[in-house]
Specification:
By secondary structure, the chain is mostly beta strands. It has 6 helices and 22 strands.
């Protein structure tokens, strides 16, 4: 910076798409250092430890703010609520196992690349969230007849595209106030208090929706009689093909299957190495549109497909399903691919569903695997 900056718009550029030969920028690397994805081998666990669960924080993580924390519920309600943490914990609680995925998962694989957090495919995780059902809180507050949306405000504050803001999103009341949707005001993750990066002391959990809806560091819920039009709702998280396109909102998670990469990796290329013979391929699949109904695996990059076994757990309808397939590996370079289909008939695409924000890019995962019988090379451990 040369000292000539005069306003927020000078430090907060509009959204853009990278040029044909443009590499990852220092700013994108800084975002990637702050936010992290799930190591894919962690999918061997049905529940993700908090330190391995993906993290995305738009602004600074609010630190040291638990003392005196209050949640207010107001706007178009009959009985406004002002609750401290003890009052929330005293209410009947539930625990739900929920898979969360960032809306930008897969963005860095798009061509041309939207410039933002450069996710590959690891922006996902599954945890057991404990808290108070949002529907119960709204029923306690009493929903006015003219209310149509609930707006959720977090304590994180920053600038985005020249707009100073608290992070704020809304949900239609058809989702927010429906007990069957299992929306939670959560204060625990995997049986322990929320870690700072996951929204301590309170966050929203919206099963089936992409991560932008799960407002962290939650401090206020306001019911409105008109649709909310704030930045994160009407500017960000829209599926646009052009800059002037109003776009469609990002909502439910598109189906995705991921594979735990088999064998062992090269450090830099991440190419996997396996030995000839039977190799167990395993992974997870999920969708916000309904249960997974099919998982298919290909060893030739998507030319020929074979059905894998998959298991939906009826006790955890909002969590990913496990899948497995026994693959006979033969010598050579193989391009393993996996794809999922959900109960609504949505199938993962073989090509990129491109949009300017890089959202909901659920095209199939491809894992390069070298099958070789030679295990003698480079075993000395020399650097």
């Amino acid at each position: 910076m040369d000292g000539s900056l005069s306003g927020l718009s000078d430090i907060s550029a509009p959204g853009r798409v990278a040029g044909p030969d443009e590499g990852i920028s220092a700013q994108e690397l800084a975002l990637a250092a702050r936010n992290h994805g799930l190591p894919l081998e962690a999918m061997l666990n049905p529940v993700t430890p908090p330190g391995l669960h993906y993290v995305l924080a738009h602004y600074d993580i609010p630190m040291g703010i638990t003392d005196g924390w209050r949640l207010t519920v107001g706007g178009r309600v009959l009985r406004p609520l002002d609750l401290d943490l003890d009052a929330l914990r005293a209410r009947p609680a539930v625990t739900r196992r929920v898979t969360l995925e960032c809306a930008g998962n897969g963005r860095a694989l798009l061509t041309p690349r939207p410039v933002s957090q450069p996710w590959l495919v690891e922006a996902v995780g599954t945890a057991e969230w404990t808290g108070v059902p949002l529907a119960a809180l709204l029923a306690e507050a009493g929903i006015a007849e003219d209310a149509v949306e609930a707006v959720f405000t977090g304590a994180d504050h920053g600038v985005e595209r020249g707009v100073e803001q608290d992070y704020r999103r809304s949900l239609p009341l058809t989702t927010a106030a429906d007990p069957a949707r299992d929306v939670l005001v959560a204060y625990a993750m995997n049986g322990a208090p929320l870690p700072p990066q996951h929204g301590s002391p309170l966050r929203l959990i919206v099963p089936g929706w992409y991560g932008m809806a799960h407002v962290k560091w939650l401090r206020d819920i306001t019911l409105g009689d008109t649709p909310y039009t704030g930045f994160q709702q009407s500017v960000a998280y829209r599926l646009r093909q052009r800059a002037d396109d109003p776009g469609e909102p990002v909502t439910l998670i598109a189906p995705r299957a991921l594979m735990v990469p088999p064998g062992f990796p090269d450090f830099m290329s991440r190419t996997r190495v396996v030995r000839p013979g039977q190799v167990s391929l395993v992974g997870r699949a999920w969708s916000g549109h309904g249960p997974i109904t099919r998982v298919e695996v290909s060893e030739d990059g998507g030319v020929v497909w074979t059905d894998a076994e998959h298991l939906n757990d009826p006790d955890h309808p909002w969590a990913w399903a496990a899948w497995r397939h026994l693959w006979t590996a033969t010598p050579g370079l193989r391009h393993l691919t996996v794809r999922a289909t959900d109960a609504a008939g949505n199938v993962q695409p073989l090509t990129e569903p491109w949009n300017r924000g890089g959202f909901a890019n659920n095209h199939v995962q491809r894992v390069e695997v070298l099958c070789t019988p030679d295990g003698s090379a480079a075993r000395s451990g020399d650097a």
